[in-house]
Amino acid sequence: MNHRIVLATCVFACLIWLVIFRFGQAQEGAITDEMITAFRNRMEQDQRLPALMNAATQNELRNLALNRELLYAHDHHYTNKIKTGEVTNQKSSGRCWLFAGFNLLRPAVIEKHKFKNFELSQNYSFFWDKLEKANLFLEGILETRDLAVDDRLVVYLLENPFPDGGQWNMVVDLIQKYGVVPLEVMPDTKHSSATQELNRVANQLLRKDAAILRNMHAEGNSLEAMRVRKAEMLAEIYRLLCYLFGEPPTSFEWRFADKDDKLSEWKTYTPKQFYEEFIGVDLSQFVCLHHCPAHPYGKLYQIRFDRDFHDRPNMTFINLEIEALKQFTLAQLQGGEPVWFGCDVGKEYYGDEGILRPDILDYETLLGMNLEMTKKERIMYRESVPTHAMVLQGVDIKHGRPVKWRVENSWGKEKGHEGYLAMYDAWFDTYLYSVIIHKKHLPKDVLSILEQEPVMLPPWDPMFATLR
Q1: Which of 158, 314, 372, 426 is the right S-S partner for 302, CB 3.0 to 4.6 Å?
Q2: Does the global pTM surpass 0.85?
Q3: What is the set of active-site residues?
Q4: Would you list the DSSP string of 141-188?
C-alpha cells in the first residue's frame, strides 16, 4: 500500500512539474515579453508618435489621410456624357444590381418617349427576386439532402438563405419571366427599401423549412413529397412578401405625360407587354465580362448558385485583361449607351465629393505603413471583392485616353456629387471587376469564348460576392 502511495505521489508531482514547465514558458508563436519590449523601444524612437496620437485619437483617419492635392485637382467635367433621369435611391436595401440594371435602360426610354423622367418599379421586380431566391434555397436544400449538415456547401446555403444582393443575370431573368411595371404602379414600401426585418424573419423561416425537409428525407419521404411540402413553404414566403411589399399586379392601367406635359390615353398592360412596348431591349444580346486575375483569361466561367432562379443558368462571364474591358466599355459609352458594372466601391473612396481614386486617402503616409497588394492578391486573400453595381454614364478623355469615368449611383442625390461619382482610370484598373457589354461591341474572338464549356466555380469563389 505504501509503495502505491509513493508511486502515485511521484506521478502527481511529475504532472504538476509538467504543467508548470509547459505553461510557465511561452509557447512557440506566442507574444513574448521580449517582443513587447522591442515594440515599446521602437515606439520610443518614433518622433511622430506624440503628434500622430494627438491627431488620430480625436479625428477620423479619413479626414487626416485626405490627399488634398488630388482633391483640388479634381473637377466634374466630362468630354462624353449621356443624359439620364433623376438619381435613384436604393435606401437601406441591397438592390444596387437591380437599380443599376434599370438605370442602364432608362436613357433610351426617356429619349424614345420624350419623358422628363422615368423610373421602373424596383419593388415589383424585387418581390419576384425574393420569392425566386427562397425557392432556389429550398431546392438547394433538396439537392444537398444526402450531405452532412456541416458540409461546406450546406453551410454556404444556410448562411444566407434570403439575400438582397444580386448580379446582372438576375436582372435579365426577372425581366424575361415577370416583365416590369412603372414605379407609380408599385412604389417602394418601408420594407422593400429597408429589408433588415424582412430578411431576419424570412431567414429564420427558411432555416426552419430546411430542417423540415432534411428530416423528411431522413424519414424516407420521396422527393415528390418533399416538393409538395416545399410549395406550402413558398406560399408562406409569398404571403410574407405581400404583407411587406404589397401584391404585384397581373395587369395595370397606366398613362403618362411627356416632357411637354402632353398626356397619353389610358391603356391596360401586363408587365411583360409593358416591357416589350415601352423598353423592348433584347437583354440576351449583352455579355458579362470580368477581370479576375485569380483565374486564367480567355475562358468562360460560371459560379454555382450565383442566380436567383432554380431553372435558369448561373451567372456566366468571360474573363479578360483589364484593358479589354476598358476598350469595350469606352466603345459602348461613346456610342451613347450606358454600361452596367460591378466593383469594390468602399475602397479608396472619398464620399464627400464622390471621388474613387487611388491615394485619395493616403493612409500609408499618415500611418507609415505599406499596404500595397496586387489585384490578384487582394482577390485571393479577400481584401477586395465585388460589392456594388452602378452604371457608367460618361467619360473624360484626354490625349485619347480616359482620365475619369462618370458613375451614376443609386444612393440618392445627397451622396457623392449630386448623386454621381467620379471614377478615375487607375481606380478602374484596380477595383472594377465586371462590365456588361452589348455583343455588337465585341470582336469575334471574344464572342467565340461563349461557345466554350464553362468552368464551374464554387459559390465560395471571391467572384461570387453579391452586389448590394
Answers
A1: 314
A2: yes
A3: 96, 388, 409
A4: HHHTTTS-TTSHHHHHHHH-SS---B-HHHHHHHHHHH---BGGGS--
